């Protein structure tokens, strides 16, 4: 993409590793490593899987280099990052418009609600608050993945690999680049969950 993004924020790490390891094979147009580096250094990576994929590219290495590294136990080249900072207690709240839509299978539905959550909350908190307000309508289920929680069912309608269906989350008509456990909605933002096919 024109802004230095390769795929989405989660595919950036592997793409940068691949392009960095194969520089002698692509021409005549050179890949703009600095632009891609600017994208990843401005993003707040929190998921261990995403960090593991982008970190090698940040130190100009790839997973292919791992076998040749000489790790000396007496040196401290990689200091610990320490514990994850806790979300500070916030007295500021935001209001998020959340809607769920199924026009794909069975009985079609569309429901919307407004929820108020603390500033800095993840999208998962919005879903939990909506379910708390109206469990008959906004119930949902997640499953844990290496990329964080993934929503597999909303309003009793579950995703199905055989049918190639899933719940897609959008903001301003664009799919979110992050999952429900990472994405931080903004005040007044409209988040749509749409039952979709891939």
TrEMBL record:
A single BP term in Gene Ontology: cobalt ion transport
Taken from the record, one Pfam family name reads DUF4430
Task: Provide this UniProt record's keywords sorted from A to Z.
Answer: Cobalt, Cobalt transport, Ion transport, Secreted, Signal, Transport
Q: Which InterPro entries match?
A: Cbl-bd_prot, Cobalamin_Transport, Transcobalamin-like_C
Q: Which GO terms describe its cellular component?
A: extracellular space
Residues of the Transcobalamin-like C-terminal domain: 120-192
Residues binding cyanocob(III)alamin: 8, 53, 176, 198
The Gene Ontology terms for molecular function here are: cobalamin binding
Q: What is its main location?
A: secreted
Where in or outside the cell is it found?
Secreted
What does the similarity note say? Belongs to the eukaryotic cobalamin transport proteins family.
- Kindly provide the name given to this protein in its UniProt entry: IF factor
